[in-house]
Amino acid sequence: MADAAYKLAAKAAFDNYVTRTEYFADRPGKYFAEKTREKVAKLDDIIDLIKPGDAGWFAGRKPHSLLIRIATVSNVSHGFNFDRDETGVYVVESLEGIGIRRMPIRDYLESIRSSWPIWRGTTYWAPVDRYRYYDFDGEAAMAFAREYVPGPNGESPKRGTGKYGRSSVLYESLFHIPFVRIIAYWRWHGRLDQAWRDVQPYCSMFQKLIGIAGGEDPVPGIAPQWCAPINTWTSKLWAPEKIAIEL
Fold it and tell me: What is the pLDDT of residues 57-68, one digit of tens each?
């Protein structure tokens, strides 16, 4: 359970978010956007509001990202969480072919900005809704997440040297592609459930596990391996008004 000082600070940040959201710039929603209009802010204008356990999403425009968005009927293709300490704000994510990593938010946004304009997607942020979930422990949630991040030797306390690789991509597709998932789960459900115990969790599955570690299941009623980015995007744990963030 989060201590009183932490909860008060998190609540104050959320109050600030609610107050300042009205003044963020408004622009047309981008490709496959949920709304025709969306709020956008510069990182420097909101970085003081980002707290451990807040969530982020990426609406990618590369072919594999569009495939994920189409297959899961989603406006976003990837999900992650934010961490924060005395050195700065970080993105903690599970990425195919890489595994779980903890990356400074500025480096993350710079990597997106440096990609080809036609492939450049949109990054979103939403804080934990402290009006609904005052007791959510974002620090405990991200302490859990950091146990998956490999150290200098490439190993992590939770998953050794395992990576979210081709096997995870295959399992994820079997769970989420329409029609394929019905046949796959009917035919191999036992094997598929077991398989997830042996590989790194994928992005939105990891978001669900992080939320549970903080004291709240962000997507109740859905097994972690079934959780898609659209499920965490619509979760009530995080504020409904997502903010597009840019450098």
Answer: 999 878 777 777
- Check the CA dihedral 208-210-211-215 and report its sign: positive
161 pLDDT higher than 50: no
Q: Tell me the three state secondary structure of residue 27.
A: strand
User: pLDDT higher for 118 or 206?
Assistant: 206
Residue partners of 71: CB distance under 8 A and separation at least 6:
173, 176, 177, 178
Query: Which distant-in-sequence residues (6+ apart) come within 8 Å of 148 by Cβ?
Result: 94, 100, 156, 157, 158, 159, 200, 201, 206
Contact (Cβ atoms closer than 8 angstroms) between residue 76 and residue 233:
yes
Strands 78-85 and 122-126, by their bridges, are unpaired
Considering only residues 31 and 148, tell me which one the structure prediction assigns the higher pLDDT. Answer: 148
The CATH number of whichever domain residue 92 belongs to comes to: 3.90.1720.10
Q: Which of 222, 223, 199, 217 is nearest to 96 (CA)?
A: 199
Q: How many domains does the chain have?
A: 1
- Give the separation between CA 91 and CA 105, rounded to whole angstroms: 6
pTM for the full predicted model: 0.86
* Structural domain harbouring 31: 4-246
